[in-house]
Write a structure and sequence with these properties.
The chain is 30% helix and 32% strand. With 113 residues, it is α+β, with helices and mostly antiparallel strands. The protein has a five-stranded antiparallel sheet.
């Protein structure tokens, strides 16, 4: 999904005004202390890009510095991307682990008539 996001130049298109950024969650505390150590004052941000009609184009996560910029060398990380009529999503780690465990359990379960 990151490749689609980068190749589609969604971040650059948002910066050029094609999309509007709508902040959904803003967390001054992060579970990654190394981010704060390297970038004091950084905040975790979850945001949506919407087009002029209000259609959701992408949901992203990134770390924002106090001046409003994204941490240098890092781009927003897409979690959802609506492209060419298809909604792509990044499965959350816990949901993926649960799904894989359920699939493994179902595969190892003996068939009972």
């Amino acid at each position: 999904m990151q490749r689609r996001f980068n190749e589609g130049k969604y971040w650059e298109r948002m910066q050029a005004g094609e999309f509007v950024e709508v902040i959904k969650e803003f967390h001054p505390d992060t579970i990654y202390p190394e981010v704060i150590q390297r970038h004091p004052g950084a905040c975790s941000v979850t945001t949506h890009y919407v087009d002029q009609q209000g259609t959701l184009i992408a949901e992203l996560h990134y770390y924002r510095l106090p001046d409003g910029s994204v941490i240098p060398g890092h781009r927003p990380d897409p979690k959802l991307l609506f492209e060419d009529g298809v909604l792509y999503h990044q499965e959350k780690k816990k949901a993926r682990e649960k799904r894989l465990a359920e699939e493994a359990a179902a595969k190892n379960k003996p068939d009972v008539p």
